[in-house]
Each structure stands twice: as structure tokens, then as C-alpha cells.
Amino acid sequence: MSGTRALQKEKTRQAIINAALAHLSADHSFSSMSLREVAREAGIAPTSFYRHFDDMEALGLTLVDESGVTLRELMRQARSRIELKGSVIQTSVDTFMEFVERNPNIFRLLLRERTGISPAFREAVAKEIEHFKEELSEYLAQESNYNPQLAYTLAEGLVTLVFNAGAEALDMEPEERKALKERTILQLRYLTLGAQQAVKLESDTAKEAS
Amino acid sequence: MSGTRALQKEKTRQAIINAALAHLSADHSFSSMSLREVAREAGIAPTSFYRHFDDMEALGLTLVDESGVTLRELMRQARSRIELKGSVIQTSVDTFMEFVERNPNIFRLLLRERTGISPAFREAVAKEIEHFKEELSEYLAQESNYNPQLAYTLAEGLVTLVFNAGAEALDMEPEERKALKERTILQLRYLTLGAQQAVKLESDTAKEAS
DNA sequence: TAATACAGCGTACAATTGTACGCTTAACTA
DNA sequence: TAGTTAAGCGTACAATTGTACGCTGTATTA
């Protein structure tokens, strides 16, 4: 393998993927995209598409997978930034928003297919977001003295808030986006603060009882 | 007006709307629905559709509007339940989840078109959710001593968390759903608790400064 | 009662869609 | 080198789509 043949195949495969990604935009979703459109954009005959994917759904799942890779890199980036700069929440939100601004189409893909028509898609996206939650959950449990359950609940809340803010930011002007960002940061602070408070209240009552 | 003629017209109009609503499901979204499908389901000729709506988008916006009515009734219901039972958060979440379970298709419509292809749709849904945020915001400001800004930020966070939980609940088994509900309630508590804490911290430092 | 308005229908057409089928041609294998 | 494999193409076809156009029959209006 890895001969001229396989190489060329991989090349057109990428062409298809890129064509699909390129066609994503505010008013063009993956589900509203036809096989022929993708083929046209990729510069191949419609029927050649089948040499690479069973159908559009298969291509879509590949796209979701690829965007998962991008997302995980995002997390790594955020982590190293946090080590440099300190403020966890601020840095995380900044990094995430930067990602959304730079890859609006990938984000839109996840956003739409999360609630889309295809169960396979929904599941795939849910899995990607789950990754996010679990990584953050571990981080929180390690960093602070949350028990695993509380850490997960907190992480889930944080991810939900950030992810949603990203979704809303897509349609916004820069200044509006800035205000949203600030509110989001506050919400994350409140959530974290409240969780800490809950831990404290629990341990206080435990002490009183002893 | 209100003659036989106008009455019949209103009747078929409702038939169209109902047909569209009926066709919404987990694997059939409004955007993937054709004019002809709706017409078929409504028992009219495809071309007759135009006697009532300019195009599918116009019908969609009407649906969003109608679901807004349902949502607002939901809020009213929640409020009267709270007066009866007391626990604000628990009751709100219960009521909301009940709504989602009872009107999954309406909820799916909002969920999907919120991030959909049509700017008009996105805006319409955003507006409905905004209603939610603002009503809750007012309620919070009145009930507690939050300033308007903080109240809004808090309300936004709460609505985001609940709405999202509803979205995830759609695909879940009852027991999984129950666990989600419990986590959501915790998240709402933390958020509220954190906001109160923030207010307290502020007023404490203000006192020290004086 | 005569004239008008209009909801609903059927026909028609051009686009577009997914995909079955068989061919070509270049890379691979033995 | 001879035989095989398979990526990519073109043709073809049946479905389906949105919608333009003109007709019909009935409720409304004058």
C-alpha cells in the first residue's frame, strides 16, 4: 500500500471532506446539502462519491469525527494557556470563543447535528460533547476537593453554558458578543462559587453532627 | 366577514398547521419537510397551499409563533404551581420537563430552528427564548434584591441550563432522564447560590470601605 | 338577481435528486 | 509481462420538488 493509487484516493477523499466543510455556512447546513453538490464542489462525478463513502450520512459522521479532533486540540491549547496565565474561567472562555470565531462552520455543524434528524449524528455529537464534560470534570476533581459526582455536575453546567454562549455568539456583532462573553463569565463564576458553597455547607453540617 | 367562506378558509389553514405539526418528530424536521408533504397530509392540492402561506418559511414562522403561545402558558402554569408548592427551582424544572415530555415536537421545532438555516427562523426562536429570560429576570429582581443586570445574567444562565436539559432529555430513557433532572436542579441551585454569594461579597466590601 | 371574488383543483414543466450500470484507464500483483 | 483490480466517468431513469397558469363552483356583494 501507500502507492500512487492509495495516495490519489486519499487525496480525493480529502477533497470531498473539504468540499463539504467549505459549503457549511450560516445558511447552508450539512443536512440541506446534497450528494451532488458535494461531488460538484470536490470536482468529481456524483457516482464517484460512492467510492469513498456509503452515503451522505457516512460523510457527515466523518466530519463530526474530524471536528472532534479539532475540539480536543482546542482543549489542549486552553490548558497550556491556563498554565501560563492563571485565570481558569476567563482563559477557557476566551479560548473557546476564539475557536468559535475561527471555525464557525465546524461549530455550526456540531450545533445543528446535535439536534438533527439522524440518530447517528446526534449520538456522535453527544459523544464529542461528553468528552468535553469528562475532561473538565476530571480537571475539577483533581484541582479542587470536589467529589466525582459534584465535579461532573459542575462540569456539565459549565460546558453547557459555554457551548450555548458560543452558539449565540455566532449570529452576533463584536460588541454584542463581548457583552455576552462577560455575562457568560459571570455565570460560570456563580456556578463555581455556588458549588463551593454547597461543599462548604455540607462539611459544616457534618462537623456539627459529630 | 366571519361568513361561511372565511370560516372554511380558517379551517383549512388550521389543517395545514396541524399537518405540519403532526409530521414533526425525532427523524423528521420542519426544514426537511416539503410543501407537497404538508399539502398531502392536510388533504389539499399542493397549489392550494399558496392560498394560505407564501411559502414554507411563512408557515414555519407561524408555527414558531404558535409554540410561543404554548410556552407562555407553560410559564403561567409554573407560576401558579410555585404559589401552591413553594420550591421555585424544583417546580420550574418539573413543569418544564413535563412540557417537553408532552410536546416533544413543538420543543424539537424550537430546538432545531434555533440553529437552523433560515435567519428569520433563528430570530423568531431567539425572541421566544428572550421572552423566557426576561420574565424570569423580572421575577428574580422582584423576589430577591438583585440589581437588574445581575438578575438578567442569572436568569439567562438558568434558562440556558433548563432549556438545554430539555433538549437532552428528548433522547433519554425515563431513568436517565431522572438523573439528568436531578443534576440540572443542582446546577440551578449552585448558580443561584453563587449569585447570592456574589451580592453578599459585594455589599461586604462596600461596608468595609465606608 | 347579476356580477364578482376567491378557495381549491388539475395539469404541466423544468430542476434537482439519489443511484444502478457498464465502460475506461491506470495502478497494482503474480 | 500478462492479468487483475478499482477509481472515476457518463448515461440513464424514476422520484420528487416548487410553482406558473387557467378552470370551476360557490359564497359574497351590489
List keywords for this structure.
8 helices; homodimer; DNA-binding; elongated; 210 residues; Tetracycline Repressor, domain 2; Arc Repressor Mutant, subunit A
What can you see in these coordinates?
The structure is a homodimer of 210-residue chains. Chain A is mainly alpha-helical. Chain A has two domains: 1-53, Arc Repressor Mutant, subunit A (Orthogonal Bundle), CATH 1.10.10.60; 60-209, Tetracycline Repressor, domain 2, CATH 1.10.357. Chain A is 79% helix and 0% strand. Chain A is built from eight helices and no strands. The first copy, chain A, has helices at residues 4-23, 35-42, 56-85, 88-102, 104-113, 119-143, 148-169, 174-209. In chain A, helix 3 packs parallel to helix 6 (119-143) and helix 6 crosses helix 7 (148-169). Chain A is elongated and about 75 Å long. The model of chain A has no long low-confidence stretch (mean pLDDT 93). The first copy, chain A, binds a DNA duplex (30 and 30 nucleotides) through residues 3-5, 8-9, 12, 34-36, 44-48, 50-52, 55-56.
Summarize the SSE layout with pairings.
Two copies of one chain form a homodimer.
Chain A lengths: L3 H20 L11 H8 L13 H30 L2 H15 L1 H10 L5 H25 L4 H22 L4 H36 L1
Chain A binds a DNA duplex (30 and 30 nucleotides) through helix 1.
Q: Largest sheet of chain A at a glance?
A: none
Structure annotation, total helices of chain A:
8
Relative helix content of chain A: over 70%
Q: What number of structural domains do the residues of chain A give?
A: 2
SSE class of chain A: mainly alpha
The unreliable regions of chain A are: none
Q: According to CATH, what is the class of the largest domain in chain A? A: Mainly Alpha
- Can you give the mean pLDDT of chain A? 93
Return Rg of chain A in Å: 21 Å
Assigned CATH architecture of the largest domain in chain A: Orthogonal Bundle
